[in-house]
Amino acid sequence: MEALADTDSRPEPIDLSHLYSKVTTNRSTSSVKDFYKYFTIPGIGNLAGGLPNNNYFPFDTLEAAAALPQRFTPTPNKPVDPPSDLLSKTTLSDGLSSSRVVVPKISENEDILRKIDLKTALQYGTAQGYPPLYSFLRQFTTENLHPNVPYAGGPEIILTCGATDGFCKAIDALSNTWNEDRDWIGHREGLLVEEFCYMNAIQAAKPRGLNIVPVAIDDEGMVAHGKGGLFDVLDHWDKSRGKRPHMIYTVTIGQNPTSGTLSVQRRKDIYAVCVKYDVVIIEDDPYWFLQYPSAKESSLYRRGQPAVNAHSDQSNLDRPKLQKSSGYPFLDSLVPSYLSVDYQGRVVRLDTFSKTVAPGCRLGWITTQPNLCERLLRITETSTQQPSGFVQSMISELIMGPHDPKHGRGGGKSDGGWQVDGWVRWLQGLRGNYERRMQTMCSILEEGKELVKSGRRKSIDNEWSVIDKVTLFDFIWPLGGMFVWLVPSDPSCFVVLGLTLVRVHLNFPSHPLWNKTTPAKLAQGLWVHLTSKKYLVLVAPGAIFAPTDEIRAKRSWAYFRICFAAVDEPDVEKMSRRFVNGVKDFWGKKSLDDIEEMGTRGLEASEGLVDLIGGC
Ligand SMILES: Cc1ncc(COP(=O)(O)O)c(C=O)c1O
């Protein structure tokens, strides 16, 4: 390890300890961890630890039928021009064939990095994570996911109970709580966020007294320069509001709710501003592997515009030349994490199994520079301690498989575990199916975004038949994630809908009642109208993604988010059509009474929706 560090010419990560919270600084090294090494001395009789006896655990094995990694058909890593049949079906699957995964009660393996059994997994363990899973994920993260982190020694990881848990621990490490009744305003710290963002993070940060500071976004995501961009906000910081913020919370791929995907160049621009103002970037990337190379070309093709560069990797996202390959064309084709430009070690990346296995796993990991990771370990030791042993052992066995086939069974055809190849293949299959869903929804939105009305118009000596075309909404084909968010050419005009997000903007000014009521009531009226018996679709109103009261009041009414991930396969098409028909019919509404009444109901309901879907 030391020899490696000697030859590592990359810069050392900077010391971030001046940004640690008081509580985090005060945490001493846990003596429990030092003690654990004595447990592993062969033959030692443990009369010291207060551990329950494993023979009294009621589980003799843990068993499951689990998919083979090839279950779903991938989509190409490069754009296809024109979009082929491969993209025209919602889901492609080789059927439900599966393998049986078994975690045994006891494995005789002496190597704790390969030993997967209930005796160890259900016992108190190390806060870093269950050793076999920790070692697998650490290697996968540093060698396959992020092989080009530019600081010496590379990052460290720690397992979490999902991205939500990771975020809470990150802000716990990096910010002090502030209380209006007790503390001086000059001590108030801040969190920079996208101007529409994932509200669960805001709901975790706000009660700590943090200033929630929105930064302007465009189609990609957070803007570095220009009015309301990161530099503008930090450079013109008004100290009467508190300290200049030192943390960003950002979702960079398939942003929730706007579906934006941040280019490498934008990451570099944002990072440079963070270096200047000493800001830490908390990158929450649950949709990272859901990047859709077909989106850009499909949108140009459907709109009758020439292809940009159909056969290059996502050219518009300005991928850097790879110094080191991940070993997998799929992973190499993805826009890399902020970690790839993090030469100072100021990025805290959150990963999760919620979108790759299931949200109920409550399993994820943080990747960051080793010193900060050590502080996160201290926080974990006195909070969650570690993710559930049931989940950690099951995922370990599924992917890694048993060291010896006599002790347990892994996933895959040979029972030996999916291994890295299988895990990457699984991610590719998931991307494939979500990409096909995105194609299905966006194709229907594309066909349905205009209302065509025919009529007759008189001139002095003639009568003409005329066709009026009104664009009801516009949207951006998402380059990643689960959402569609509708984008206005004039932001005051449209509503955005995002879903493993599609962004949709509604052209409310073209509605016959536009000048007769408030925009917010009109938008809420549409929201309720879509839930009526004829259409039965529930979309997420923009208000639930507004990080401040000002954005909520002024602009959030103009946006909806629609998600192509949650409904069953045949429903993606059906629901998308119902949405389009519902919008079209709403433009036929002439009575103000209807709209006002629905608008009031919509307002009440959308407040409840924040609580209902706040976590997703
Ligand atoms: C941006 C974002 N972060 C975090 C989460 C939740 O992640 P986890 O289940 O790992 O806590 C979600 C869920 O929708 C999300 O969209």
UniProtKB/TrEMBL annotation:
The keyword Transferase applies. Belongs to the class-I pyridoxal-phosphate-dependent aminotransferase family. GO terms for biological process: alpha-amino acid metabolic process. Coiled coil: none annotated. Pfam families: Aminotran_1_2 (PF00155). Keywords: Aminotransferase, Pyridoxal phosphate, Transferase. This is Aminotransferase class I/classII large domain-containing protein. InterPro entries: Aminotransferase_I/II_large, Class-I_PLP-dep_aminotransf, PyrdxlP-dep_Trfase, PyrdxlP-dep_Trfase_major. Residues 119-404 form the Aminotransferase class I/classII large domain. Its cofactor is pyridoxal 5'-phosphate. Residues 71-92 are annotated as: Disordered. It comes from the Eukaryota. One of its GO terms (molecular function) is transaminase activity.
